[in-house]
From TrEMBL:
Organism: Mazama bororo (Sao Paulo bororo)
Phylogenetic classification of the source organism: Eukaryota, Metazoa, Chordata, Craniata, Vertebrata
Any one of the GO BP annotations: mitochondrial electron transport, ubiquinol to cytochrome c
UniProt keyword Iron, yes or no: yes
GO cellular component: mitochondrial inner membrane
One Pfam family matching this protein: Cytochrome_B
The UniProt record lists the keyword Ubl conjugation: no
Functional note: Component of the ubiquinol-cytochrome c reductase complex (complex III or cytochrome b-c1 complex) that is part of the mitochondrial respiratory chain. The b-c1 complex mediates electron transfer from ubiquinol to cytochrome c. Contributes to the generation of a proton gradient across the mitochondrial membrane that is then used for ATP synthesis.
Transmembrane segments: 21-40, 52-70
PANTHER family in the cross-refs: CYTOCHROME B
Name used for this protein in its record: Cytochrome b
Domain Cytochrome b/b6 N-terminal region profile: 1-73
InterPro entries referenced in this protein's UniProt entry, alphabetically: Cyt_b/b6_N, Cytb/b6-like_sf, Di-haem_cyt_TM
Keywords on record: Electron transport, Heme, Iron, Membrane, Metal-binding, Mitochondrion, Mitochondrion inner membrane, Respiratory chain, Transmembrane, Transmembrane helix, Transport, Ubiquinone
Length: 73
């Protein structure tokens, strides 16, 4: 497996793996906080801007799904 190879055979591969996983989690936490801020301040009233943001959110989530879930079978 490529993950096993990175963790075992690459210098500091274990820290690369954990930083990548934690960075991705932090990215999504910041993304959801940004959406929450928009809800709190009523930004959903700007329909065109809000709809573009929702499309971007779904695109990011779909990219994460394709890149993480699908390769595992």
């Amino acid at each position: 497996s490529s993950v096993t190879h990175i963790c075992r055979d690459v210098n500091y591969g274990w820290i690369i793996r954990y930083m990548h996983a934690n960075g991705a989690s932090m990215f999504f936490i910041c993304l959801f906080m940004h959406v929450g801020r928009g809800l709190y301040y009523g930004s959903y009233t700007f329909l065109e801007t809000w709809n573009i943001g929702v499309i971007l959110l779904f695109t990011i989530m779909a990219t994460a799904f394709v890149g993480y879930v699908l390769p595992w079978g």
